[in-house]
Write a structure and sequence with these properties.
Layout lengths: L8 H18 L5 H16 L7 H7 L14 H9 L8 H13 L3 H17 L7 H21 L21 H4 L29 H10 L4 H22 L11 E5 L5 H14 L8 E4 L1 H4 L6 H13 L3 E5 L13 H14 L5 E6 L1 H8 L3 H6 L3 E4 L4 H14 L3 E2 L1 H16 L8 H20 L6 H5 E2 L7 H15 L8 H7 L1
Parallel strand pairs: 1-4, 1-5, 2-3, 3-4, 6-7
Helix pairs in contact: 1-6, 2-6, 5-7, 6-7, 9-11, 13-14, 17-18, 17-19
């Protein structure tokens, strides 16, 4: 089940700066070096509880730095090594000093810091679109220890922060648990991981039928669902023919996903990975998601190593390459060509236990496949993911509401359907499909929270009810109407406050 906390690395950095800047205004910007180091240590410990480590974790780790501070330069190998050398959580010295100062002055900066830490760690936990129970437990442990310092020091009580356990999306075993027997630290010394006293209980993987039910439950994508079912039937019969010593024609399991962002390509890739594992095509069934930055390095000779590293992590599962056309768009001397050649060799060397799915916009992807004869011969199965229409966007929104215990009033239901119908009919090339729905849902939660927080004694019904006014911002609409009116009159519209704020 995807989490609503997942953000791009760029978006996360803006969130990190907003949180830390706000903290420095009530604390001190002199704490920036210590705070960034502490946040990085927390991220490494947090990700040791994640289900797996990929290039997205590297990208996020490289965004943990305050304003005017140097940007980190993690690579996958040293990030993974550092995660495997996970240390026990220790409250930083500066936090003790904060708590003692708060106790003397009657302030609550230290408790504000705890709420900030919770928010940032939840975003970091969701980097793989999954918040595991272990990750939520770790965040809770951090906040509990820091809260205990505040309590014993005498810092005045403050409002409670978020409960990380409310945002768990899976109970997948941690990365360290999965690789306990093979973990080595980058130094090669005495910090190798200790063996488990008791073997971690292996999580039960969904069955073939359960995964097919999940596929069927997806909104829209009827043609994609039909093609996946056809593919699975083909693979099952192929396996039966092998078992009965009948000839089996050669078949490529690699795929091309065509379509705009937010149309469910990653979700379907994850299901196909599990389905392939359930019927014995793949040994593990994990999904490793990367883009160009996860495969291409900046120096001669490094791209092949970086690509091989990603391939190794994907063996036994599916390697999903988003915006794959960017690998061939830089000309003959671009390092993306080296990544493609390395990938093609791996697809041949590991053809029995590696499936590659490349994805992106339709036009650029067709150009990508035709850019190399090896790509054309290995990718001959195409899945097209159409944009969601207004009713389908509405159904995704309803699912988000149900999952998070929000109830739309009849009036809100009507307003939401109108909103998503217009969103689809007026879509531009930047239309985000499901991502736009997620953004609308998160904006709705903020507005509904602001409305309920202003009530004297809100009931449970108030807490879950969504009203039409929660779906739009009247001030934004007023600004938009004013601008439209000015344009109709033929005058040059002045910059709105919203635009001025965006420029700032």
């Amino acid at each position: 089940m995807p989490t609503t906390w997942n953000r791009s690395p760029e978006e996360f950095h803006k969130i990190y700066l907003a949180n830390t800047d706000a903290f420095y205004r009530i604390g001190s910007s002199n704490l920036a070096p210590e705070l960034d180091e502490f946040m990085t240590k927390c991220a490494l410990s947090l990700w040791s509880k994640a289900g797996g480590i990929g290039e997205r974790h590297v990208q996020m780790a490289n965004q943990i730095y305050s304003r005017s501070r140097p940007q980190p330069k993690w690579l996958l190998w040293n990030l993974t090594s550092s995660i495997c050398a996970d240390d026990v959580f220790l409250p930083p010295v500066f936090f003790w000093n904060l708590a003692e100062t708060d106790a003397k002055r009657g302030t609550e900066t230290s408790r504000t810091f705890i709420r900030m830490l919770t928010n940032i760690l939840l975003y970091l936990a969701a980097v793989d679109d999954d918040v595991t129970y272990g990750e939520a437990e770790y965040i809770t442990e951090c906040t509990d220890r820091l809260t205990a310092i505040c309590d014993t020091t005498g810092v005045r009580k403050s409002r409670e922060g978020l409960n990380p356990l409310d945002y768990v999306t899976s109970g997948e075993p941690s990365f360290v648990e999965k690789h306990a027997g093979e973990v080595q630290t980058s130094g090669g010394g005495g910090n190798s991981a200790k063996p488990e006293e008791k073997p971690a209980e292996e999580e039960k993987k969904p069955s073939f039928d359960e995964l097919m039910e999940q596929l069927e439950s997806l909104v829209g994508l009827e043609t994609v669902k039909k093609e996946v079912k056809n593919l699975m039937n083909l693979v099952k019969v192929r396996k039966l023919r092998k078992e009965n010593d009948l000839p089996v024609p050669p078949m490529s399991f690699h795929m091309v996903f065509l379509g705009n962002p937010g149309t469910g390509k990653t979700t379907v890739a994850r299901l196909i990975s599990g389905l392939y594992a359930a019927i014995g095509v793949l040994s593990k069934g994990q999904l490793v998601e990367v883009d160009r930055s996860g495969l291409v390095a900046g120096y001669v000779g490094q791209t092949a190593l970086k690509t091989q590293e990603v391939i190794q992590s994907a063996l036994g599962g599916v390697l999903f390459i988003d915006e794959a056309y960017s690998l061939s768009s830089g000309g003959d001397n671009d390092f993306g060509r080296e990544a493609i050649e390395t990938l093609l060799k791996a697809m041949e060397d590991h053809r029995d236990d590696l499936v590659v799915i490349v994805a992106g916009y339709t036009g650029p992807m067709e150009g990508f496949i035709s850019s190399n004869p090896g790509l054309e011969s290995r990718f001959n199965r195409y899945f097209f993911f159409p944009d969601y229409n207004g009713e389908q966007l509405m159904e995704i929104f309803r699912m988000q509401c149900r999952k998070n215990s929000y109830t739309l009033t009849p009036e809100a239901e009507e307003a939401a359907l109108k909103l998503f119908t217009e969103l689809y009919e007026e879509r531009t090339e930047n239309f985000g499909n499901g991502r736009d729905v997620r953004n609308c849902f998160e904006d709705m939660v903020v507005r509904q929270s602001n409305r309920v927080a202003a009530m004297e004694n809100p009931t449970k019904e108030d807490l879950i009810s969504v009203l039409p006014e929660d779906l739009s911002d009247p001030e934004e609409e007023e600004v938009s109407e004013k601008e439209t009116g000015k344009e109709t009159e033929g005058t040059e519209p002045e910059a709105s406050e919203a635009e001025a704020a965006e420029d700032r």
